[in-house]
Design goal:
The chain has 464 residues and is of the alpha/beta class. It has one domain (109-463): Alpha-Beta Barrel (TIM Barrel), CATH 3.20.20.80. The protein is built from 14 helices and ten strands.
């Protein structure tokens, strides 16, 4: 029995020694691994948090504080670069430097123009929600209007859109949002941002003035090698005189910025370009005062000459556009069949008319259309995205007419459901938002990039 006890004691000691050695071995491995951890790693590392919109907005707010401090100093281009470096140093984020971004992102296609809206606001940046709280618009027939709800949306859970942005109910003034948008548009291989614009102090009926934001948008666009042109909205009392002054204002104030878009014409001139929304509201005689060489307010052959692109809705508008002195036409609406101009099967005849009258034809393609969040009675104009097939059909129709420029409706017109900006699934107590499933939030950016490359290849064949 004594012999057995001695054997057991030695066995216990040996077990304890082995266990102690094993623990020391594990500790030494842990210490070694710790020394291999990257400096930026730690609790709250922002990698991956962008997948959650709520967390992403918190990061955006922190990033914006640093961006705002830096914007006070430096020249225009240096200021944007400094914003980037300060954000990296303070947040210890994994965002690559600009030259690396250039390598990773698709090259911009300056023949792909995309409509962009900077009218959104939230309490953090604007003191209140703007546009996300859009009212429900009544039908013009009171009998029909009585069958639908009234009131306005109540963000952030309830917004005036059928889809929900990955960035949440953002502010267009948030520098981090602007940068995220530029990166998305660049990743989609678009090249020209068509910025919705009202004159200083003016806005649409649901918004606030946004002209003060133009310099910031130009700065960030330049960082991503994008260009900016202007989508002149139908502001109050828009006529030949006010348009002359507003075009002069835009060119004088923004024309010297490296991101200001100029289009090379067939004569070799580089001219600014202006899209004119709802141009048909003004009679051709008024436009001719501004846009023809003999007009009383002519802008032709002056330092403010430019290319002016009119909106074509009805077929008869093509003759009015020609008489007015416009340089081209675009179709804007993303609803195939909604208007003459937005119907794909009419694009060939419109392109032929433009070719024979020395006009540019710019078809507008879109991923779909749904605006029942603000016009609940407008179901008949909804166009289902069909998991991207609707968008690709529109691109295919546009390429058939070999246009010099294709416009995209839109990057972020959320009210009308034409956006290609990243959207995420969301369900609230009252609303189930549409989403891009089974695809990822960036599917429409990827499709745009795919067709941008296809356009480039086909354009090479057209020019041969």
């Amino acid at each position: 029995w004594i012999l057995n006890y001695d054997i057991m004691a030695r066995f216990r000691r040996r077990t304890c020694i082995i266990l102690l050695l094993f623990i020391l071995f594990i500790c030494s491995i842990m210490m070694a691994l710790k020394t291999l951890r990257p400096d930026r790693a730690g609790f709250g590392d922002p990698f991956g948090l962008g997948l959650l919109p709520e967390l992403q907005q918190r990061i955006v707010l922190l990033d914006n504080k640093q961006n705002s401090l830096n914007r006070i100093q430096g020249d225009t281009v240096t200021r944007v670069s400094n914003l980037h470096s300060i954000a990296v140093n303070t947040m210890k984020a994994s965002m690559p430097p600009v030259n690396k971004l250039e390598e990773e992102l698709s090259s911009p296609n300056y023949n792909f123009h995309i409509f962009y809206y900077s009218w959104f606001g939230n309490p953090q940046f604007d003191g209140k929600y703007i546009h996300w709280n859009h009212p429900l618009l009544p039908h013009w027939d009171p009998k029909i209007a009585n069958n639908y709800p009234k009131g306005r949306h109540n963000p952030p859970e309830d917004i005036g859109a059928n889809f929900y942005p990955e960035l949440g109910s953002y502010s267009s003034k948030d520098p981090s949002v602007i940068e995220a948008h530029m990166k998305q548009m660049r990743s989609a291989s678009t090249g020209v941002i068509v910025l919705s614009w009202y004159p200083p102090g003016m806005a649409d009926e649901n918004g606030e003035p946004t002209d003060d934001l133009v310099p910031v948008i130009l700065d960030y666009a330049h960082k991503y090698n994008l260009k900016v042109t202007f989508h002149i909205e139908p502001y109050k009392d828009r006529d030949d005189r006010s348009m002359y002054h507003n075009v002069k204002y835009i060119i004088d104030k923004y024309g010297g910025h490296p991101a200001f878009y100029r289009h090379k014409t067939s004569t070799g001139r580089f001219l600014p370009m202006f899209y004119v929304y709802d141009s048909y509201v003004t009679i051709p005689e008024i436009w001719a005062n501004l846009l023809t060489a003999s007009g009383s307010q002519t802008i032709r052959n002056t330092p403010y000459d430019a290319l002016f692109i009119a909106l074509l809705v009805e077929e008869r508008h093509k003759h009015d556009i020609h008489r007015s002195g416009f340089d081209g036409m675009y179709t804007y609406f993303a609803t195939n069949g909604f208007s003459y101009g937005s119907s794909h099967h009419n694009w060939a005849s419109l392109k032929a008319f433009c070719d024979s009258n020395n006009l540019m034809f710019i078809p507008s393609v879109g991923p779909g259309y749904i605006d029942t969040s603000i016009r609940p009675w407008n179901n008949h104009n909804t166009r289902n995205r069909v998991n991207g097939k609707y968008y690709e059909t529109a691109f295919s129709a546009a390429l058939l007419v070999r246009p010099e420029i294709i416009s995209i409706t839109s990057f972020n017109e959320w009210h009308e459901g034409t956006q290609i900006e990243k959207a995420v699934p969301k369900r609230t107590g009252q609303v189930v938002y549409l989403d891009y499933k089974p695809h990822k939030p960036n599917v429409y950016l990827e499709l745009t990039q795919k067709w941008s490359e296809k356009y480039r290849k086909e354009q090479e064949q057209w020019l041969m």
